[in-house]
Amino acid sequence: TGGNSYQMQSFELYGSDEDFTDREIQEFEKEYLGFYVTSHPLESIRDKLPFLTTHNITDLENIPNDSFVTVCGLLSSVRQIATKKDPTKFLKAGTIEDLTGEIDFVAFHKTLQEYNSLLEPEKKVIISGKYQKREEGSSQIVIESVKPVDNSNIITIALKKEVPFETIIAIKDSLIQYKGTDPLVFKADNNGEEKKILASPNFWLSASNDLTQKLEKQFSDFISVNINSLC
């Protein structure tokens, strides 16, 4: 109209989502949409989550107050707050989410001295601490330790046969020397069915070739050791 003419323009887009890694696509989605569409950052380790944690987040509401828990998730929000008693000291509070839900967390100044750099938004971490129910009905985890998922290993000790009690004590004494933050799983045969048991975080280890070699050299008749990286 009015002597003006319009011409349709066509465009052809090149490339595909295969040019980007899953992680890059997730970052794009979070930045531009505010949520994940194609997959969640924890999806790639879904099958390993039961061996990294003591609980899913949605299960926490059913456990006693002040229970020690370990959860694995994505830090969806983090904020730094100056403490009231000493403005030169800080704490961090925020929200961690797994594939089942989310929960608040707090990390006090003493904890931040060791783990501050790991508590940043969008980081995948394993956190351990006390589960606390608050008066207003909400709940939180008071963090005592943090481990990045990308640097985590799962140590699996397979029991080949029934192990004598004195040998179990000797294995335990050897494991104590490698105390760390890598989850420890025991695998055993139970009437023809394979069973996996996640050890308490108090018994987790620091994965190394020395650990594997020493255990298999001393106890090769009874156990085998396997270390799998999450990367």
Q: Using the alpha-carbon principal axes, give the shape.
A: elongated
The largest sheet, given as strand count, sense and whether it forms a barrel, is:
5 strands, mixed, barrel
Mean pLDDT level: 82
Amount of helix: 10-25%
End-to-end Cα distance, whole Å, is: 61 Å
Give the SSE order as H and E letters.
HEEEHEEEHEEEHE
- The stretches of 5 or more residues where confidence is low (pLDDT under 50) are 32-38
Range of strand content? 25-35%
Secondary structural class: alpha+beta
Task: Give a count of the beta strands, DSSP E runs of length 2 or more.
Answer: 10
Please report the number of helical segments. Answer: 4
Strand order of the largest sheet: 1-2-3-5-4
Radius of gyration: 23 Å
Q: How would you sum up this structure, described in words?
A:
The protein has 231 residues and is of the alpha+beta class. It is built from four helices and ten strands; from the N terminus they run αβββαβββαβββαβ. It has a five-stranded mixed barrel with strand order 1-2-3-5-4. It has a four-stranded mixed sheet with strand order 9-8-6-10. Helix 3 runs antiparallel to helix 4 (209-219). The longest helix is centred in the N-terminal third of the chain and has 12 residues, at 22-33.
